[in-house]
Amino acid sequence: MTRQLELVVDRIKCDGRGLCAEILPERVHLDSWGYPIVTPGAIPEHLTSLAQRAVDDCPVLALALRRQEIQRRRAK
Amino acid sequence: MSTPRLLDGPNPSMGPERFAAHARRLGPLPKGGHGLIDLLGHTGLTGRGGAGFPVGLKWKAVAAASHGAAVVIVNGAEGEPHSKKDRHLMTSRPHLILDGAMLAATSVRAKQVVISVGEGHHAALRSMTEAMSERSEHDRRLMRIVTAPARYVAGDSSATVHLVDAGIATPTTTPPEPHQRGVGGAATLVQNVETLAHIALIARTGAATESLLVTVAGAVLTPGVFEVNLGTPLGEAVQLAGGPSEAARAVLLGGYFGRWLDIADAWPLPVDPHGLRERGLSLGCGVIGILPARQCPVCEVAGIMRYLASESSAQCGPCFFGLRALADACTRIAERGTDPGDLQRLNRWSGEVQGRGACKHPDGVVMFLQSAMKTFGDDFAHHPAHLRRSA
């Protein structure tokens, strides 16, 4: 079992409030219309607590941390 | 005996083939089940709705998650503007489709079969409704018909599930995919009508079908739906539609999520999902659109971009705002002439939009635009200012 976590956005819920990019600029920046672009791949250990805060503070609950292996399986 | 074709039998223009005639012509329907799922895997059949997903794999996934309560959605929404093949098949061979649907229902152990027909396709709706009433009581008890709104995204599989569940034909966030959790939470198989018709023949012969349906549209003498043998050169398929009606410039292969090709490059290509995939292309939903030489490709592309932007279901920001921005930049180039800034913005925004929707709508539009900018590179680079024709 791997502990690698990935930050995923529910594109339908996301309203472009931009808090995630404020809290976690290392992994999230905003596109031309204010919607988050998340750096793909696992969140490094030292950023996981900030990533969790971004998830918790999203005003429309559009962010989640997912175990990466699950994402891989879906991509097939 | 030669391999049976979808449109064998009476002339399709005579309307729907009745159940008695259909059963007499093709004989009884074999049983579905694991054997059929394996057979579909072996034949390499891929979906004919546009995405081209391997059918055997999809059925296996739904069967595994079914618990005897799966749902089969027969997808005849056909929201692709130039595609006519699904409604052509629904109006001429409804029982092939229903045969395929019943085989699917048995194979994935479904307790519901929902037939989704595009709301404007009146003849298809009538044909499918009548055909349903001719089936056995067992079949009829499983089946019902819904109409899908005439929107581009309504054919997306998650949108089809959403339509059946809630009456709203907009895509939903995946995962869960419909095959995991679809209608009412049950594993759901969403399959295009032509795909199901192929399966009705494959189950009877035990072998792959060797033809498929295409819609030839645009600057040809007799646009319409044709059944072509796999591997037929694209130019020959266009000849079935009487050939180009005037000097032709380019082909849009696979509908609005397809690729633009120079006419000389397109003509020898094989009409075959696997052969095209090997070349990095896709037959998509089988639309072969011919662009005449007198028509400005940039203006044409800008018009299609405006349409595709307006077809966003307005749920995901990058799609809703991004496609509008892309369409606006195309329109500026078309009407006010090329501006290097707009060309740069098209490239930058394409990258920002790609992969950032709940469904594949933004990705499909970006692919369309990128292939247009490649095939019509000079036209985009040196487009003069002129107001678009209203037509």
Word description of this protein:
The complex is a heterodimer of chains A (76) and B (391). Chain A has 76 residues and is an alpha+beta fold. Chain A has a single domain, classed as Alpha-Beta Plaits. Helix content of chain A is 30%, strand content 21%. Chain A contains three helices and four strands, in the order E-H-E-E-H-E-H. Chain A has helices at 19-23, 48-57, 68-75, and strands at 5-9, 28-30, 36-38, 63-67. In chain A, strands 1-4 form a two-stranded antiparallel ribbon. The longest helix of chain A is centred in the last third of the chain and has 10 residues, at 48-57. The radius of gyration of chain A is 12 Å and the shape is globular. The model of chain A has no long low-confidence stretch (mean pLDDT 88). Chain B folds into three domains: 12-205, NADH-ubiquinone oxidoreductase 51kDa subunit (Rossmann fold); 211-292, Ubiquitin-like (UB roll); 297-381, NADH-ubiquinone oxidoreductase 51kDa subunit, iron-sulphur binding domain (de novo design (two linked rop proteins), Up-down Bundle). Chain B has 391 residues and is of the alpha/beta class. In chain B, strand 5 and strand 6 form a beta hairpin. In chain B, the strands form three sheets. In chain B, strands 6-5-11-8-9 form a five-stranded mixed beta sheet. In chain B, strands 3-2-1-4 form a four-stranded parallel beta sheet, sandwiched between helices. Classes of the chains: A alpha+beta (76), B alpha/beta (391). At the A-B interface, loops of A face helix 14 and helix 15 of B.
